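Researcher: We're teaching a course module on how sequence relates to structure. For the next exercise, students receive a sequence and then see the predicted structure as tokens, so they can try to spot secondary structure elements on their own. Here is the exercise chain.
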Amino acid sequence: MLFIFDMGNVILENVDVIPKIASIFNLPFQEVARFCDRELYPLMKGTVTVDRFWQVFSRRFKVKVEQDYLVTCFEPRLDERMVSLIRDFRRNNHRVVCGTNTLDSHYRFLIKRGDFNIFDAVYASHLMGCAKPDPDFFRRILSVEGDPSEKAVFVDDLLENVQAASSLGIMAFHFQGYAKLMDDFSREGIIKGRAVCPE
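Model: And here is the predicted structure for the students to work with:
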């Protein structure tokens, strides 16, 4: 079985940098959030640079940007329960990869800290040139991994990404916390009790 896990808000907690950026510049959170909803997606696809993002931000909000706050405000924490789950899957001969919409600066931060080491492989949107919920994101992972969709399991905190994966025949789960995921996995026979079923 191939397991594909999202990173932010699934394996990592405290990943949202937008409130901190809004606070630094004393800007309304909702305005910064709307801007980021629109402008971060090209950054996650690798089609614009971080410098370009901040140039647009500076013009939009009429502020001076002196550093990459996307990374200096980034203070994620690993959910050790999820880390343990992934290690259990791998010990039981399952292939476990990360499929993440991310930015270059966040990716390099997590590489340096070793957070991706729990996975067999990492598929990062900015390196792939496409991002969830684009179905091609999932197709490329399945192609590289050599697995059909019916042998893949995907977990993500965003419903639109879950729906995109599900449309391809992937068994997809909407992550709403560790306990709920364990219940979902148990219901589908992926785990029994809290024990991972072997491949």
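Model: If you want an answer key for the exercise: Strands lie at 2-5, 12-13, 77-78, 95-100, 121-124, 152-156, 171-174, 191-192, 195-196. The longest helix spans residues 29-45.
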